[in-house]
Amino acid sequence: SYGGIPASAAAEGYQVHERRERGLPGGIKYIVYLAAFAFPARDPSLLIAIGGAYAPFMNNKGDVIALGEGARDALFNDCDTETADQLVAGAVYQSTASFETPTTFAAADVAVSKTYVVCEDDHALPLDAQLAMITALGNVTVIRVHSGHCVQLNKELVPKSLDVIEAAAGYEGLAKA
């Protein structure tokens, strides 16, 4: 979910049209958000966007956040028990700066095409929050899936996820998705 913030920020100055204006080849032509924070405006930090407090499954350890009790259900609710336990055990810290630093380039600033994959059974980024971001963004292709937070780990939905990404990369049309 956090990945939507750096994905949007990374597009600044590197979208195809921006590079073309500078006489440069290539560039970002499409962004796919997977149950991600896709802010409709600049400036809010992730912490402000989620209500000013860390989620109950996050343990603030000063400069970093560790996964705590409840992370398994929040992030991996539709994974099998063994996989979910391995993912929680192998999780690394995330910096508090990633939560507390205001965004300088948001999803709304991204001019290239965007697809947002809504994970309807997400326990970390609730459905209503995902839909609110999509509504505020406007021009975005929406794909809804019955998945928890990590659709890329849902074995039944991996083919659909790949179809969406391949469509964004210019392969098959989004009709397959």
From TrEMBL:
Q: Which InterPro entries match?
A: AB_hydrolase_1, AB_hydrolase_fold, Sec-Metab_Biosynth_Hydrolase
**Record SUPFAM superfamilies:** alpha/beta-Hydrolases (SSF53474)
Every AB hydrolase-1 domain range:
1-153
| Pfam families cross-referenced by the UniProt entry | Abhydrolase_6
Top-rank taxon: Eukaryota
Q: Which residues form a coiled coil?
A: none
Classification via PANTHER family: AB HYDROLASE-1 DOMAIN-CONTAINING PROTEIN, AB HYDROLASE-1 DOMAIN-CONTAINING PROTEIN-RELATED
Q: What is this protein called?
A: AB hydrolase-1 domain-containing protein
Q: Which organism is it from?
A: Verticillium longisporum (Verticillium dahliae var. longisporum)
